[in-house]
């Protein structure tokens, strides 16, 4: 009988150990499964971040392009204004020079005529 009790005790211990081991294995499997899900989720987020980075870059490049075009148009407008203003100044300067030239030619012509008359009087 003692022998049966010992045997029963050993068998009970085995069953308890077996159930305990199953529980430990089950818990370990759940932890591994949870870690795998976390790794998959992290990898998914990394992939989404990678794709998102291209989207953001494309958006920002589009905004920069529009900014560059706007700035270029403004610079072109300013340049045209400066050219127009300088053109007016150049034309005004040219008119003043022509006026001075006409006055100088008139003075020289008058002086030449006077000199001519003196020469004619001197020869006559």
Short description:
The protein is an all-alpha fold and 124 residues long. It contains one helix and no strands.
Report on this model:
The chain is rod-shaped and about 170 Å long. The longest helix is centred in the middle third of the chain and has 122 residues. It is mostly helical. It contains one helix and no strands.
How would you describe the shape? rod-shaped
Total DSSP helices: 1
| Category by helix and strand content | mainly alpha
Order of helices and strands: H
Q: How much strand?
A: under 5%
Average pLDDT level? 82
Uncertain runs are: none
Helix content: over 70%
Give the biggest beta sheet.
none
Question: How many E-type strands?
Answer: 0
List keywords for this structure.
124 residues, mainly alpha, rod-shaped
Walk me through the topology.
Blueprint: H1 2-123
């Amino acid at each position: 009988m003692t022998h049966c009790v010992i045997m029963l005790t050993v068998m009970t211990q085995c069953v308890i150990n077996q159930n305990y081991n199953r529980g430990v294995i089950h818990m370990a499997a759940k932890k591994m499964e949870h870690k795998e899900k976390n790794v998959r989720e992290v990898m998914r987020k990394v992939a989404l971040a990678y794709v998102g980075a291209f989207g953001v870059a494309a958006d920002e490049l589009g905004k920069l392009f529009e900014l560059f075009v706007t700035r270029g148009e403004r610079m072109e407008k300013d340049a045209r204004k400066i050219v127009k203003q300088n053109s007016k100044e150049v034309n005004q300067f040219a008119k003043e020079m022509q006026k001075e030239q006409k006055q100088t030619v008139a003075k020289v012509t008058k002086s030449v005529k006077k000199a001519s008359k003196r020469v004619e009087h001197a020869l006559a």
